[in-house]
Design a protein that fits this description.
This protein is an all-alpha fold and about 160 residues long. Helices cover about 85% and strands about 0% of the residues. The chain has five helices and no strands. The protein starts with a helix and ends in an 8-residue tail after the last helix.
Length: about 160
């Protein structure tokens, strides 16, 4: 998990910039992150070959849909970092809190949707482990992301 933590921090640092060359680097790091995440999920789920054959197409759909929420979260952090230096106006703070809540809601709904699909298509134990590992990864990413942000100060 330490290597994933380092990869997350590196990815988040790259994604916080808007330089075109760095976006290309960020895409490469995102791909590496997704591969490492997939390996972590596979290791955690410990599925049979039959289960894995059914699981991975579903998981790939999940990942395609999940990337939207992840991109929204990165944009939110970028906006926060941009505005923190100027001082975040109350209206911006309120908008950011609402966006953060909307992102979390979207992520939870997506995880629940795919939990149900995996439970129906494969089994309850695989679905439960999927939900658990995705939740843990999501929490780790959010902790890394928000734990390294400067605190908004009151003016």
């Amino acid at each position: 998990m330490t290597s994933m933590k380092n990869l997350i921090v590196f990815f988040l640092l790259l994604c916080g910039t808007t330089v075109v060359a760095q976006k290309t680097e960020a895409e490469l790091v995102r791909s590496a992150f997704q591969l490492e995440k997939k390996a972590l999920v596979a290791d955690y789920l410990q599925m049979s070959n039959d289960e894995a054959e059914k699981f991975w197409p579903i998981y790939n759909q999940y990942e395609e849909q999940r990337i939207d929420a992840f991109t929204r979260r990165l944009k939110l952090v970028e906006a926060y970092l941009f505005n923190i230096e100027k001082g975040i106006a109350e209206v911006h703070a309120d908008e950011m809190v609402k966006e953060s809540a909307a992102i979390q809601k979207k992520e939870l709904e997506l995880r629940q949707k795919y939990y149900k699909q995996i439970k129906k298509s494969i089994s309850l134990p695989v679905a439960a482990r999927f939900y658990q590992v995705e939740d843990a990864i999501n929490v780790a990413v959010r902790n890394e992301l928000y734990g390294n942000l400067p605190v908004a100060v009151r003016k």
